[in-house]
Amino acid sequence: MNLEQLQSIRRDLHQIPELGFQEKKTQQYLLEYLHRIKNEKMEIQTWKTGVLVKITGRNAEETIAYRADIDALPITEETNYSFESQHKGNMHACGHDFHMTIALGALTRLAENPPHNNVVFIFQPAEENPGGALPMLQSEELKAWWPDRIFALHIAPEYPVGTIASRSGLLFANTSELFMDFKGKGGHAAYPHTAKDMVVAASSFNVQAQHIVARTVDPLDSAVLTVGKMTAGFVQNGIAENARLEGTMRAFKAETMSGMKQNVEGLAKAIELAYECTVSIDYGSNYYQVFNHEQFMEPFQQIVEKRGFKYVDCPPAMTGEDFGYMLRDIPGFMFWLGVDSPYGLHHSQLQPKEEALEVGVQVVEATIREL
Ligand SMILES: CC(=O)N[C@@H](CCC[C@H](N)C(=O)O)C(=O)O
């Protein structure tokens, strides 16, 4: 498969972004492609909206797996691509269209010329939300094809095409979503003393919550508390009875995350008292840290450099990934693939360079054959 074919697949997938566990068209697209190239070495099965493919190795001693996530984000695309999202309000703004295309490219080459060992390709739903990796790990389908080793990639807008970045040990943080509902008393804007204003209560929570990272987390440790969405009220001259904050917390250490949750709960109680309201907290999905197993990193670096690409030993990031659960249970690693976009992950104008597709396919194929 050449770059033109990879681009064509990526552009098809880019137009049909679907949220976690709703990836029906994406699954259909993957299955149609896989059945077109299917041969006697390949087996295909589905799990919810995901797909698993096994290629039997020539002389298999073990099984290596490669995981690609397939879901998209509720972001309205602003790239002006001729092939922009046909699902208004959803976008492949985290590069999962790239991840799937690279998997299909490597799979096609390996199906034509099978590797020594068995390989399982995992097209996993719901990475962004609510998390597909953990239930997939517990599924009969994956248990039947349980791999000995596993790896995955994520596109990296900040690195040039041809650069691969990773590290031994911690790569991505522990994460917890944060959903908070504030309930007070609505009223007329001109009579604030008769109401309990949840715009003020939720704003106050968000401003004060910034002290949690700044003043309760050891400066030599690292954590994040970000509210990405805030909704409240109905009208400009009314007082909002309800407000909702939606965010995420990140920490490199699990105990730091527990401490932050205690502080969030303490502050919520203080807001209840101060603003005479009720506050409920839901932590949504929590992802386990991505921790790369040391034994793979040196051989992987050699595989990358042997193909003429640049390997960078990078610092850990505050991104999260439910692939962390897979690495908790199966030895392996994850790496960043440079795609050189002026706009970052989760941005409505993310524009990864498509030349990186070929780099990804070469590295994934070579890793499966040589690691
Ligand atoms: C690589 C990446 O961007 N992953 C997402 C994972 C989201 C986890 C969860 N929905 C949360 O927001 O905590 C990320 O935002 O890092």
Automatic annotation (TrEMBL):
Supply one GO molecular-function term. Answer: N-acetyldiaminopimelate deacetylase activity
Q: Which residues form the Peptidase M20 dimerisation domain?
A: 181-273
**Entry-linked InterPro entries:** Amidohydrolase, Bact_exopeptidase_dim_dom, Peptidase_M20, Peptidase_M20_dimer
Q: What are the GO BP annotations of this UniProt entry?
A: diaminopimelate biosynthetic process
Q: How is the cofactor bound?
A: The Mn(2+) ion enhances activity.
Needs which cofactor? Mn(2+)
Q: Which residues form the signal peptide?
A: none
Keyword vocabulary terms for this entry: Hydrolase, Manganese, Metal-binding
Q: Where does Mn(2+) bind?
A: C94, H96, E128, H154, H346
Question: What protein does this entry describe?
Answer: N-acetyldiaminopimelate deacetylase
Q: Which organism is it from?
A: Pontibacillus marinus BH030004 = DSM 16465
